[in-house]
Amino acid sequence: MKRFLTIALAIFSPFLSYGQDTSVQDLSSIDRFFQFPELAIDRLTESALARSNSLEALILDRNILAEDLQLARKDIFSNLALVSDYLYGNLGTIAFNEGGPSIGVGTGLASRYTTGVRLNLPLDRLTNRHNRINRVEYQIKQAEFVQKNRADEIRQLIITMYQDVVLAKRMLDVHTDARESVNINRQMAERQFREGQIPMAELTDIIQAYTRTNIEYQTSYTYYETSLRLLEEVAGVRITELMIP
Question: Do 208 and 186 contact (CB within 8 A), yes or no?
Fold first, then answer.
C-alpha cells in the first residue's frame, strides 16, 4: 500500500505543482505586490535605478574619467615623431694609414639617408606620467564608490516607501472593516429608532460614530493612495505593470 502511494505521488506531483503555480499566476498584480515583497522590492529598485537621473549623471562622470584614463596612457605617443633625413652632395672624408703616420683628406659625391624616432616631451611630464595615470584611476574608483552609494540610497528609499505602502494598506483594511461594521450598526439603529426601540440620543451617538469612522476611512484611503502613487513615481512604473508575471 505504501509503495502504491509513493508511485501515485510520483506520477501526480507534476500536476499538483502545476496547479499551485497556476494559483499564483491567477493573483492580481496588487495581490502579488503585497504577497511577494522581495520580488516587488527587487522590481521596484531595478526600475528606479533605470530611470534615476542622478545615477545616470554619475555613470556619465565615470565614463568620462575612463576616457581621461585612456588619454593619459596614450599622451606620450602624441609627442613621438618619426623623422627622416636625406643628404646628397660633396662629403668630406678623412683616411688614416695604419702603417704610418700619414693622414689623407678628400672630398667626393655621396648620398646619405637617415631615419629615427624623436620624443619631444618636457622632462616633468615624462617623470609625472605614472602619477597622472594613478590619479585618474583613483578618480574612477571614487566615482564607482559614489555610484554604488547612490544605488544603495535608492534601494533603501524603495524599501522604506514600500513599507509605508504596506502599512497604509493595513490601516485602510482596518478602517474599511470598521466602517462596514459601524454602517451596519447605523442601519440597525435607524430601524430601531423608527420602531421606537431606541431614543434619539442613542441614534445620534451611533450616527456620530459612523461619521468619525467614515472620516478615518477616507483619511486612510487618501494616505494609501498617496503612498502608492509616490512609490510609482519614484520607480517610474505602475504597480499593475510592475507585477505582471
Answer: no
Q: What sections of the chain are H helices per DSSP?
A: 2-25, 29-35, 37-51, 53-74, 123-127, 129-194, 200-235, 239-242
CB contact at 8 A, 88 and 111: yes
CA separation, residue 193 to residues 203, 208, 212 (Å): 7, 15, 21
- What is the DSSP secondary structure assignment for residue 238, as one 8-state letter? -
* 242 neighbors 47 (Cβ within 8 angstroms): yes
Cell reading at 2: 505504501
Grid coordinates of 25: 499566476
The string of pLDDT tens digits covering residues 97-110 is 555 555 554 555 55
Q: Is 53 left (phi over 0), alpha (psi -120 to 50) or beta?
A: alpha
pLDDT digits (tens, 9 = 90+) for 172-198: 999 999 999 999 999 999 999 999 999
Torsion of CA 45, 50, 51, 53, to 10 degrees: 110
